Task: structure prediction
Amino acid sequence: MMADEGRRGEEEDRGPGAVHQVFVVMEGLLEKLKVLNYEEEILAKHNMKNLSRHYFVSSPYLAVNPGEQYFLFTVIAAWLINEAGRPFTAPQEHDEPNATVSNILSELRAFGVKVDFPPSKLKSGSGEFVCFVLDRLAEEALKRKGFSFRRPNYPTETTEEESVIEDDAELTLSRVEEEMIEEPDDEEENVMDLEALKLRTCHTDAEASSKPDEILEATVDAAEWSLEVERVLPQLKVTIRTDNKDWRIHVEQMHQHRDGIKSSLKEATSYLDRLQEDIGKTLEKVSSREKYINNQLEHLIQEYRSAQAKLSQAKERYQQASGGVTERTRVLAEISEELEKVKQEMEEKGSSMSDGAPVVKIKQSLTKLKQEIVQMDVRIGVVEHTLLQAKLKEKSNMTRDMHATNLPEPASGTFS
Result:
């Protein structure tokens, strides 16, 4: 941050044109690259288009592609370092940008160039520092090739001799221009050409030099001479054909424009001063009125602030109450759910109590049980009868055996 402020201060010290200096540097860099034949060495190999005049300039008004700019910057910088006589490997896409930029700056320092900015300034691929680095590398490459820019030699302009016609009525350039503006274009046919007038003057001077010197006396009446002068006066006007490419005309126009600007500036300055005074008075009135309104509305502002405080407290209480209501609503929902379950159970039990199907089933079961009991009683009776018959049969058999063996006692014991 401090470095940026310092650099901004340096730009302000250099003047208002320092901001646009990077455009000039970029244009010069492009000319140097063309001298080094970068179209075939760089653009043709990478299938790239020609660079624009301000390609590496960082400006919000230019459409840019940071990735493409950074790639071209590194490729051109590596090529220029090689052209300057130092081996440098061309960077690849997978290389680390910080390492690549640091290597380029190291090579630039090796050429004796002072670098007072961080490498991160070059990662964007555009800006003042990118143009600076490429320009210095291009200069080193041109030095190695023995090429240097020289000032152009302009051809000297051959100006024709100016003919000055001295007469009783002296002609000046400004007067001739005023007469040319005032005279319409229809009278050009009556105007004498300057070249013809010069030839006529030279011829007249030659004839005058051949005559002997003597005192000439006028024999013409003054009134007739005046009439003759008035008659031939339109034909004595001199035409000076102006050339729009003549630098004197441009200089004269510049002086006229400068005088017009000065006069307009004086009028505008007075108007602006008055406007400034009016604006200052209006601002003072506005500020005083604002202070008056603030003083008048101070109690209303206090009431508004107290009302805002009360409103905030009410909102806080409302939020707390809303939280309690939410909790109670949740408990109510749970209780309602349990009540619904109890109601459902009561309905099931009530429906089961009002239903007579179980009683019918019980009666049927009792009837069936009674029938089974009767059947069992019959079976028991049959079994008892069978058992009695078996006992009687066994007793009769034992009696018969006892009579057969004459054993009355056991038999009597048996009957007893």
